[in-house]
Design goal:
0% strand, 68 residues, mainly alpha
Length: 68
């Protein structure tokens, strides 16, 4: 459902990409997500918004909630 909300949302592609990354951190964890970003670096290209990536790192470093 969250992915459908992102697709329908009024955000830029970059904003949607970062929001998806934040969602994925909760699912796969920061190490797996970072590995994917590293593996896809050539296709993803340079980071257009360093401040957004820094915020994503802060979120990834935060203690994860357990879903009930």
């Amino acid at each position: 459902m969250a992915v459908e909300a992102l697709a329908a949302g009024e955000m830029t592609v970059t904003q949607k990409s970062y929001a998806l990354g934040l969602l994925l951190v909760d699912v796969v964890g920061p190490e797996v997500l970072q590995s994917a970003v590293t593996a896809l670096d050539q296709e993803i290209g340079p980071d257009p918004e360093p401040a957004v990536r820094a915020a994503a790192r802060t979120r990834a470093a935060a203690p994860q909630r357990l879903s009930t």
